[in-house]
Amino acid sequence: MRSKGLGVLLVLLGLGLGATLLRDQVPTGGAQPAARAPLNESGARLQNEQNTIDVVGRFEPGLVFISTEDVVAQDPFAMMFGAAPDQVRQGLGSGFFVNEAGDILTNYHVVAGEGGQGAADRITVRVMNQERSVPAEVIGLAPQYDLALIRAPELSKNLIRPIPLGDSDTLKVGQKAIAMGAPFGLEFSVTEGIVSSTARQIPIGFSTSGAGAGLTQKAIQTDAAINPGNSGGPLLDSSGRVIGINTQIYSPSGQATGVGQSAGVGFAIPINTARRLLPRLQAAGGQVVRAPDIGVTPGLLVQSRGQVLPVGLSVLSTRGKRDLRLPERGLVVGAVQPGSAGARAGLRPGTREAAFRGGVILLGGDVITAAGGQPVDAYEDLQSALIDRKEGDTVTLTVVRAGQTRQVQLTLDASAFGTAQQ
Fold this sequence. Notes:
- It is a single chain.
- By secondary structure, the chain is an alpha+beta fold.
- It has 3 domains: about 60-70 and about 90-160, Thrombin, subunit H (Beta Barrel), CATH 2.40.10.10; about 170-280, Thrombin, subunit H; about 295-420, Pdz3 Domain.
- The chain is about 20% helix and about 35% strand.
- The strands form 4 sheets. It has a 7-stranded antiparallel sheet with strand order 5-4-1-2-3-7-6.
- It is globular, with a radius of gyration of 27 Å.
């Protein structure tokens, strides 16, 4: 450490001496330096820079810093032999206000308890320019979507500054993205980049049992710097509206060190996914909100980077789909679980398997092309269309069967909400 400090000192000294020698060697004569006008900083600002300043100044007060504490119980028998007592695991993350009632949207993994089960023992929040943290309570948890809704009853109403929600369905690649959060615990930090992709399919969330992954969903990819602590914070557009919730990063260095760091590839949950789920989270009473499951299994699977992923028909060639009498886009139904909502609606599973380079498809069954008027091309599209539905709702599915398009009425009964993906 000493040699390193000395090296830095020598570099600094060298730069200083070099500047002195150079200045002494340049003849100045009697010339006087030209007078310089004072820098007009406000006039020098670029339009994009001023826009960022305006957005941050207006909406950063709606950002929330979240801290958690969770008691990690030790083996009681090990304690008899001098092992350490129970330990407290601490966590940090971000969130943001979504309404005047003080509801705070964040990631489930920010407030999750030890082992991914339920919420942490203690959750506190702090808003901008406030030194005091106040306790927060869970309103609803959605592990499969990595979303949670919390509220701080003791927080003064005048400190609640909701950030308006945008429309993630209208995003274009290349538009501005502003990320807010607390990277590495550096509270109320802001970074800027662009939307790199609007429909990157990645596994998001956790199973309701705390083991395994959640749903494969569409995510927004951005190069705005996102690091540990940014989770749960908002991703804003140039109008200051929330377009996503920062949730994950791709970090090659994290595979070696165990600590993720930004590599310019971050992911955010589209705000429209959270918007559709919000009513159910608000009515959850602190309980887990499960994704509706109609009992169908995707029938088109491909190999990608060592994983088998369900995909939509849009990945196949037009000629191949024409030869197989398949629509341009849609979710191929591979299997239908007996007794499920899908089975009661009469959905038909695939009956024969056809392999192709890099994947396999089950043919002879239904292809779902729309649900509730929303286009469906993959399983996450179906989940997105059902996410804000409740038990008893009827959804119209557009289905292609044997080359013919038909409408199928599907009722979300108790089985759709009692059979969570594990």
